[in-house]
Amino acid sequence: MSFINKFGKTTLASSILAASVLGTTHVSFASGSGEGNQGQQGQDEDYMAIGNTKNPKNVIFMVGDGMGKSHTSAYRHFADNPDTKEVEKTSFDKYLIGAHQTHNDDEKENITDSAAAGTALSTGHKSYNGAIGVDTNKNKLKTVLEQAKENGKATGLVSTAEITDATPAVYAAHVDDRGKKDEIAQQFYNDKINGQHKVDVLLGGGAKYFGKDNGNLTDKFQKDGYDYVTNKDELANSQSDQVLGLFSEKDMPLQIDASADEPKLADMQDAALDKLEKNENGFFLMVEGASIDKAAHPNDITGVMSEMSSFDQSFQKAMEYAENHKDTLVVATADHATGGLSMGSGDEYVWKPEAIRNMKHSGSYMTKQIVDGKDPEKVINEGYGIEFPSKQMDKVKDATKALKDAQDKAKSDDDENVAKATTTLQDAIQKPINEASHTGWTTYGHTGEDVDIYAQGPGSEKFRGNIDNTDNAKNIFDFFSGDVTSNQN
């Protein structure tokens, strides 16, 4: 496996951050994992008033990609009011209900990637790293989104990554390798259930996989009645109940670096809910804060906290929606943790988020600007909100020169030496903010610890305690089971 593929990084400005399948496998349902209904935050009487008190009509499933326990702990301090002695709780803390285990079923690696983890979350089956909706024998697995569509529900996928990336892909595509993004996009259009497209709302990045080089899929979706939108205003003005929104060629920018005309995760989620809730049978919506992972891979603490804030905004809105729609279940979790983030490094027992709060741009953004040919010193001065040591500036300039030399010698866009030189440059850019905040990292890849689950609404008690990642899907299958005969093409 190459350096680039291993750590999810790609080369040059476009990528600093980082066969047909057959058969059908049936899913066994999970039993409730705990007693009582505490996951509804003491609102049992409200749930008796309206809505389904046993099974949810609507499910919003949120994935903070790469969001480990250290990420949520660090975010609590980052979001804390510095004028009070108390460390205030975040919106996540109120709804903490359990955790799930993240290990995969891979002969070579027992720490999961997003594809294997997503397959577990969407199908209820563990698989190998790189698998998109298929088992270890590469047989197709039914997903909870597909079950929702069979049941006559509306469906949606929202992500800050390419909409063909692993986490959204596992809900509506089936390929043996996550890298087959053209094929994933084709399946989004071609595969139908009961004569209908699987996904009614598709919002994220990845426009390159829907254009003329892959069959002009945007045109085909529009001919079938979908609105096609490319910015925040167009999304807000979309009138169709079905929409394809592609807001960047590849991954969407981090929130701290995004322009005003680019929708935030919360904007995309709001738009999706406005459309999906019109279906009288209910809906299933997956919302991915993908860029927590995209920022953690290159150890970009500024980017990670920016994306935690973005995910928090969406999480709060989802929970507010559930409070106002008593037949809606919201589950928020992660697929895995990324980066080995630690609150504290070196000899001092401190972590100082105020330095991160003062940053104007992410390390990833500054790296991309320099790779694109901008002057390193100008980029650093515009992006940093704390003092950048002159000796470290010299190291950034040296790393910039080394990257340029690697680019000049590269024979392909995925040259490994270019990727390594890009990483060296980004590390040099981020060293001062990591040191000022006392942030530590152990890896550019994923780590294998359990991740938290937050939930509210009917059925939330089934996610209580320490469960397996596959139980997330099994519980949702249980909620959706048995109302419509499958007629999947």
UniProtKB/TrEMBL annotation:
Keywords: Hydrolase, Magnesium, Metal-binding, Phosphoprotein, Signal, Zinc. InterPro entries: Alkaline_phosphatase, Alkaline_phosphatase_AS, Alkaline_phosphatase_core_sf. It comes from the Bacteria. Its cofactor is Zn(2+); Mg(2+). PROSITE patterns: ALKALINE_PHOSPHATASE. The keyword Hydrolase applies. Residues 1-30 form the signal peptide. Belongs to the alkaline phosphatase family. This is Alkaline phosphatase.
